[in-house]
């Protein structure tokens, strides 16, 4: 097994495929409209550890657990030659930057537009 610090996107995607062990634990699937970035990544890491995946396997299987716009983003990310030497930590950071920012902006907008109605108690408003 390679040192995880030296695993890049390019060499992980070109690694020979091996079947998953019988104790396979499927990570949850991330969809930006219904999932939280931090909890998805935490669950993905936990499932990867349970399955005995090193960083190469985390990279190889990652797109299988991304849905909709997240999967499209990853396909573009993985297809960009500028990202071919990125390791798992860099991929996670780029993913957080892309999708955590979206969720943060949506939450900011929701909070900015939240108003207490005349008949709403403070407890109900909060």
Automatic annotation (TrEMBL):
Annotated region (Disordered), positions in chain: 1-20
Origin superkingdom: Eukaryota
Biased segments, Polar residues type: 1-11
Retrotransposon gag domain span: 65-125
InterPro entries named among the record's database cross-references: Retrotrans_gag_dom
PANTHER family found in the cross-reference section: CCHC-TYPE DOMAIN-CONTAINING PROTEIN, ZINC KNUCKLE DOMAINCONTAINING PROTEIN
Name of the featured protein: Retrotransposon gag domain-containing protein
Organism whose genome encodes this protein: Hypothenemus hampei
């Amino acid at each position: 097994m390679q040192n995880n610090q030296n695993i890049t996107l390019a060499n992980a995607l070109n690694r020979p495929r091996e079947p998953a062990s019988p104790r396979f634990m499927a990570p949850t699937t991330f969809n930006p409209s219904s999932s939280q970035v931090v909890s998805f990544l935490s669950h993905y890491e936990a499932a990867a550890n349970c399955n005995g995946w090193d960083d190469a396997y985390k990279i190889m299987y990652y797109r299988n657990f991304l849905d909709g716009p997240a999967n499209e983003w990853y396909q573009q990310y993985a297809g960009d030659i500028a990202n071919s030497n990125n390791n798992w930590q860099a991929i996670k950071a780029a993913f957080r930057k892309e999708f955590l920012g979206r969720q943060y902006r949506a939450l900011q907008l929701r909070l900015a537009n939240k108003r207490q109605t005349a008949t709403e108690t403070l407890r109900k408003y909060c």
